[in-house]
Amino acid sequence: MINTMSKAESESKEPMNEQAVANIYASMKTDINQIYSKITELEMEVSEHSLVMNAIKPLDPSRRCYRMIGGVLVERTIKEVLPAVQRNKEGLEEVIARLTEALERKKKEVAEFEAKYKIRIRKGDGEMKDESSKKEGNAQGVLVGPAGANE
User: Fold this and answer.
1) Which residues face 69 on adjacent strands?
2) pLDDT digit string (tens) for 79-120?
3) pLDDT band at 124 (very low <50, low <70, confident <90, very high)
């Protein structure tokens, strides 16, 4: 899923021209975005695990509950399910920590690449105006009047 190039590979394969540098840079930025999205996805799962744990902790440990395991709904007791959910949550948190470390390494690699090839990101005035008009045009909201206004 995540395409990474070791420093030895990147140093041995010097880019031939500006287009090659731009392609490598775009690839590196894509890798960073993929790591960000995976971290966000896993953080959502940790949040869901926390919600489940908080919901079932105060209940009687012998009470029946249902758990999805590999696409199959299985009946268990809260006493059996709570430790499993806790272990899963801890495992997810470890993966998030490793991905965060990988993200920091990748950011450092990108910064070194930017410094080495003197890469600067430019945005023209036209692009900035387009973005601001898109934000205004896409804004959606709900207008709610005072309670009892339509009665």
Assistant:
1) 72
2) 999 999 999 999 999 999 999 999 999 999 999 999 998 888
3) low
The residue written with tokens 């999805």 in the block is 68
- Domain CATH for 63: 1.10.287.370
Question: Which residues, including other chains, have CB under 8 Å from residue 50's CB and lie 6 or more apart?
Answer: 89
Q: What is the pLDDT of residue 59?
A: 95
- Asked if residues 3 and 31 have their Cβ atoms less than 8 Å apart, the reply is yes
Give me 53's structure tokens. Answer: 């744990």
Question: Is 112 among the domain residues?
Answer: yes
Q: Are strands 72-77 and 64-69 parallel, antiparallel or unpaired?
A: antiparallel
| Tally of CB atoms within 10 A around 92 | 19
